[in-house]
Design brief:
CATH architecture of the largest domain: Roll
Number of domains: 2
Structural class: alpha+beta
Order of helices and strands: HEEEEE
Shape: elongated
Helix content: 25-40%
Radius of gyration: 26 Å
CATH topology of the largest domain: SH3 type barrels
């Protein structure tokens, strides 16, 4: 009788474990779907004109500009990072993340 109970216990534990894994996968998929709805995708390509966020934009007053320039974006090896070229043709050594850039429309 004890052997039958052990087999039943193992089956219920395995069923419970599979149910937990299924619930975790469902939760992760729903969380990813929710997050993807909230993310604003930026579409910046090579040669686009961009503005960059000023480094001191958090400390400026409300009437001070928070963006500067009109730069040409030049893609770097990493996705989402760019070198900027100013109108005089100088290229920045610093790479800028796409979160600190905004497309500039003329």
């Amino acid at each position: 009788m004890l052997a039958k109970d052990e087999g039943y216990c193992k089956e219920t534990m395995e069923a419970t474990r599979l149910e937990v894994v299924e619930n975790i996968n469902k939760y992760q998929q729903e969380t990813k779907k929710w997050r993807d709805r909230k993310v604003v995708r930026k579409d910046i390509h090579d040669g686009d004109l961009v503005l960059r966020r000023r480094r001191d934009s958090l400390n400026t007053g409300k009437l001070q500009p928070k963006w500067e320039g009109a730069y040409n974006a030049m893609r770097v090896g990493r996705p989402g990072s760019f070198h900027l070229k100013d109108p005089e043709g100088r290229t920045s050594m610093h790479t800028w993340n796409i979160d600190n850039l905004r497309r500039f429309y003329i």
